Amino acid sequence: MAIRRVLVVDDSRLQRRILVSSLKKWGFEVAEADSGEAAMEICATDPPDLVLSDWVMPGMSGLEFCRAFRALENRAYSYFILLTSKSDKNEVAQGLDAGADDFLIKPVDADELRARISAGDRILGMQHELSAKNRLIERALEELKHAHEAIDKDLIQARKIQESLVPELSRSFGRSRVSLLLKPCGHIGGDLVGMFSPDRNRLGFYSIDVSGHGITSAMMTARLGSYLSSQHFDQNLAMERRFNRFFALKPPEDVAATLNARLLADTGIEEYFTMVYAVADLRSGILKMVQAGHPHPLMLRRDGSAEFLGQGGVPIGLLPDVPFTRFETVMQPGDRLLLYSDGFTECRLADGEMLEPEGLLDLVRSCDPERGGQEFLDDLFWQLKQVMSPDHGMEDDVSATFFEFGVNELA
């Protein structure tokens, strides 16, 4: 039983003897007090499971004793029954407000008392069970808190590792320049941007978006970062050694095919990714690209015109032996090319609609025309945040690669 110890409080010695006799016969441990003050001394050191208290007593009344008893900081809940000759509804309401759980009309009937104690025992039993479950929940929440803190710490470190995949956010290649933007929507993301150049006349750069979000996507970007390393050309799948003397860039379509075969050969991997990979001849301005399910590259001509390039293509890692088609264009000094992830075009606006490519073009045109390189990308991202829905925020990673051809020559 939940009720083991009972405190009987009554200024009538006879009434206490009658109650104590019944309670002991039923197997309860019983303590007595002849006043509310004496009862408070007992409750302060050894609170009972059940209190049976008379309402009308000299000094501290049963109602006052009930309020004082409830004010004690007891770890466990105690059931409180007021013994009273009062049956008026207002007086019963006063007792409930003071913290009483039940009432018995004097003279007390033994069977009714036993039934009321049984009802209180059921309530205390449920309360004890609830307290035990709450303690389990508190321990589980504390363990989850520690686990979350550990995961959060790991994710912060993972973000640093992921940032190391993009060691330079802006770099000049002769008279041209490549700038990068990488803004994950969480600690880590599934977007990757990069650039590499085996010699002064050739440049490769890309924009990648791995399916999904979170840890799995971030692990895939780490793998792709090693496949397209800007530090270790011998590991870069987009390069090949010629005559054991120098490295050359492979055709973009071959790079896409190699990545597709490599990804499909890895069993257990369900992720795929979209990509635009471009190779630029820094002398002639010839630009060769492959688009694999990625948003259409945006060409910004020096004369102010703009056009979206490419035909779409199939994402990498979905189908075996799929052909990837190369397309070409020629850039003039002052022309700029923007590769971007769908974190831009699928950004949700305040009206619930998506930005779409046309909206991106509007953002580009609203940027300061005097700004280039990293400043342009920072301005573009700031413009995006101004139109972004405050209710949705960044729902996807946002990234971009910005290639400016011959800008230093014009300067």
From TrEMBL:
Alphabetic keyword roster: Hydrolase, Phosphoprotein
SMART domains: PP2C_SIG, REC
SUPFAM superfamilies in UniProt: CheY-like (SSF52172), PP2C-like (SSF81606)
Superkingdom of this protein's organism: Bacteria
Residue numbers of 4-aspartylphosphate PTMs: 54
GO molecular function: protein serine/threonine phosphatase activity
Keyword Hydrolase on entry: yes
EC number assigned by the record: 3.1.3.16
Domain Response regulatory: 5-121
InterPro entries: Bact_Sigma-Reg (IPR052016), CheY-like_superfamily (IPR011006), PPM-type-like_dom_sf (IPR036457), PPM-type_phosphatase-like_dom (IPR001932), Sig_transdc_resp-reg_receiver (IPR001789)
Enzyme class: hydrolase
Record protein name field: PP2C family protein-serine/threonine phosphatase
